[in-house]
Design a protein that fits this description.
The structure holds two protein chains of two kinds. Chain A contains one helix and two strands; from the N terminus they run ββα. Chain A has a two-stranded antiparallel ribbon. The longest helix of chain A has 29 residues. Chain A is rod-shaped, with a radius of gyration of 18 Å. Chain A starts with a strand and ends with a helix. In chain A, 25% of the residues are buried. By secondary structure, chain B is an alpha/beta fold. Chain B has a domain of 217 residues. In chain B, strands 1, 2, 3, 4 and 5 form a five-stranded mixed β-sheet that branches. In chain B, helix 7 links the parallel strand 1 and strand 2. Chain B is elongated, with a radius of gyration of 33 Å. Chain B starts with 24 loop residues before the first helix and ends with a helix. Classes of the chains: A mainly alpha, B alpha/beta. At the A-B interface, helix 1 of A face helix 3 and helix 4 of B.
């Protein structure tokens, strides 16, 4: 049995989509990757702002 | 019950097909109620994905805007990293430094003299992203390169005012010694190893291409260069001081930091006179046919015999003219402390005596020390003979 990340409902092991909310059932590593992407993207924006300040202010 | 899209087996409670994600009949009835739509639009995975997309979009847009700004203002995209590195260096060392490296070494095929010169230019032009862009400074560098046949002039982050002062020195030196174009490959701002150990420095032959390769298969390239120490030339607070107070009256009277370029050009002029006497046009491209000759020439120049002969001629002329009986050491010491400097074996450094004589002549012309004047006249006669 595996849990849908989106709605927390239980699904069968070989289900590819959640039977309740229809979202694709993915490995935890996918969501970990998204979180890392958010952190890195935010850092990237901060770095861009710092570079902008250095070059143009 | 089967899925209408893919035919997979469904259970009665399924809102979506577990195989293809298609909405089932039961799901259609379930989500007809608006209160049940929340999980579709606000589930954990949906929110995470929305956040991710938003952050990545903002980041991508900011990169594009930044890149466009850099391009439209004429900057290289790598310039900001150079700015950051310079700021870190400033906090680390307490003075402005350059990021230009003059000791890069390469393995690269160079077939002829023109390619060697192009490679010297490229070595420095590839590093220009580390400099703050200044169109007027770039124009000044270009004028020096084209007017005096110096393939590369890089003042990088030097102030425009300082660059103009150095240009004035170069212009006047080439006017005083018109026969010296064609052998200097670059004048470049750089960092000395220990901060303040030299103001400027002449290297007759710095080999930087294919240094460890077999000469039979790979030509090598030498730079004949004048290096300007960033410790002085990028720091106005140091430049504003009197050089002879900073360096304990080492140079000739009235010397400035900028006039030391005349001293280094003095070394260059001695080297040109030496090459011309040996019938060698340049030592930039080293091939299997000329490697031994070039090595021997450089050794001969550096051991000082040629320069000693010049000094002895000048000394002889001086003693005859002024009815004096000086020896070489005391003759040199009439010019400046630096002119009388000795090596670790206690022998006069002839190259420094001549360079200081030329420095004195640059600063004082006909009013230079008589010893300087005699040295310069001998050197001019050597340059004229071959020219």
């Amino acid at each position: 049995m595996k849990t849908c990340y989106n709605c927390n409902r239980l699904n069968k092991d070989n289900d590819r989509y959640c039977r309740y909310c229809g979202k694709a059932i993915r490995n935890n590593s996918y969501y970990t990757g998204l979180k890392i992407g958010i952190v890195l993207g935010t850092l990237g924006i901060i770095i861009m702002l710092i570079l902008y300040a250095i070059m143009y202010l | 019950m089967k899925c209408i899209k893919c035919g997979a087996e469904l259970e009665d409670v399924d809102n979506f097909c577990p195989e293809c994600g298609e909405l089932t009949a039961k799901g259609h009835r379930f989500f007809h109620d608006p209160s049940n739509l929340d999980i579709l639009n606000n589930g954990k995975a949906v929110k995470l994905k929305k956040k991710f997309n938003a952050i990545i979009s903002i980041f991508s847009l900011s990169v594009i805007i930044f890149a466009l700004l850099m391009i439209f203002t004429g900057q290289n995209l790598m310039t900001p990293f150079g700015v950051i590195q310079k700021k870190i260096n400033y906090y680390r060392y307490g003075y402005n430094t350059s990021l230009i490296k003059t000791n890069n070494k390469y393995n690269f095929k160079v077939n002829n003299y023109d390619e060697a010169i192009e490679f010297i230019k490229k070595d420095f032009s590839n590093q220009l992203y580390t400099c703050n862009q200044n169109k007027e400074l770039t124009m000044l560098e270009y004028e020096l390169e084209s007017d005096y046949e110096i393939p590369s002039v890089v003042f990088c982050d030097m102030s425009l005012e300082e660059a103009h002062k150095i240009k004035d020195v170069i212009v006047r030196m080439y006017a005083l010694f018109p026969n010296i174009k064609g052998n200097l490959t670059n004048i470049t701002i750089t960092n000395s190893k220990t901060g303040s150990d030299y103001v400027a420095y002449f290297q007759p032959a710095y080999q930087f291409v294919n240094v460890n390769k077999d000469i039979k298969e790979n030509n090598k390239v030498n730079k004949t260069q004048i290096l300007l120490n960033s410790y002085y030339f990028l720091n106005d607070n140091i430049l504003s001081q009197d050089i002879n107070e900073v360096l304990n009256n080492y140079y000739v009277e009235d010397a400035t930091f900028e006039s030391t370029i005349a001293h280094e050009l003095g070394h260059y002029i001695s080297f040109v006179a030496f090459l011309r006497e040996k019938g060698v046009s340049n030592i930039t491209l080293v091939t299997k046919d000329n490697e031994e000759e070039i090595k021997s020439l450089i050794n001969e120049f550096e051991n000082g015999e040629y320069l000693k002969n010049i000094l002895e001629q000048a000394l002889n002329n001086y003693n005859l003219k002024y009815n004096e009986n000086l020896n070489l050491q005391s003759f040199a010491e009439t010019i400046s402390k630096y002119a009388g400097v000795k090596d670790k074996n206690g022998n006069l450094l002839y190259s420094e005596t001549i360079a200081e004589a030329i420095h004195d002549y640059y600063l004082h012309n006909e009013n230079a020390k008589k010893s300087s004047y005699e040295i310069v006249m001998v050197l001019k006669s050597k340059l004229k003979e071959v020219f």
